[in-house]
Amino acid sequence: MSSLPPFAAVVLAGGKAARLGGRPKPQLEVGGRTMLDSVLAALDGAAPRVVVGPPQPVPAGVLLVRESPPGGGPVPALAAGLVAAGDAEVVAVLAADLPFVTVDVVTALRERLTGDGVLVVDDTGRDQLLLGVWRTAVLRAATAGARPHAPLRGVLAPLAVRRYRPVVKGGSPAPWTDCDTPSGVARARAVRPPAHG
Description:
Elements: E1 8-12, E2 29-30, E3 33-34, H1 35-42, E4 49-52, E5 63-65, H2 74-84, E6 90-95, H3 103-111, E7 117-121, E8 127-135, H4 136-143, H5 152-156, E9 161-164, H6 182-191
Parallel strand pairs: 1-4, 1-6, 4-5, 7-9
Antiparallel strand pairs: 2-3, 6-8, 7-8
Helix pairs in contact: 2-4
């Protein structure tokens, strides 16, 4: 969609993954590729693509940065990613554990960007704070000076946010499906087993 403005992408890939036995959650495979690779594929066309988190494999051309302090939570991670996002006016912000997010969902968010940002609302009506597209300058201002472990919801609350509820076709996994627990990973793998051949 050439009519859409260029955009950067920040993927939050931190956390200790304590519920997953300490393994780096973004590097767990669903459908034959890591969850991080799936999220980065959905952000095709973004420049730069920035991953924020501990040292881990990332594809060529993807920037890997660390929040300060390390392990300080999503707000410092977002702030660090926004620094690395350069001068892009628009930024997509996604969690790294969304194996079913697609280019179409990201494009739909970009198309709906009005005000400060737009984010996905799931089928329970809950805002998916790490599945949205934002004005970069607004997010930079909102995260400036935020303390470690500050709740992201509180930082974003004052912003003018539009909600988008994607239509999920029957039998298809929802794009907001995350994998926070071993059972969540197992369910995702059952929905999309590795392709063979």
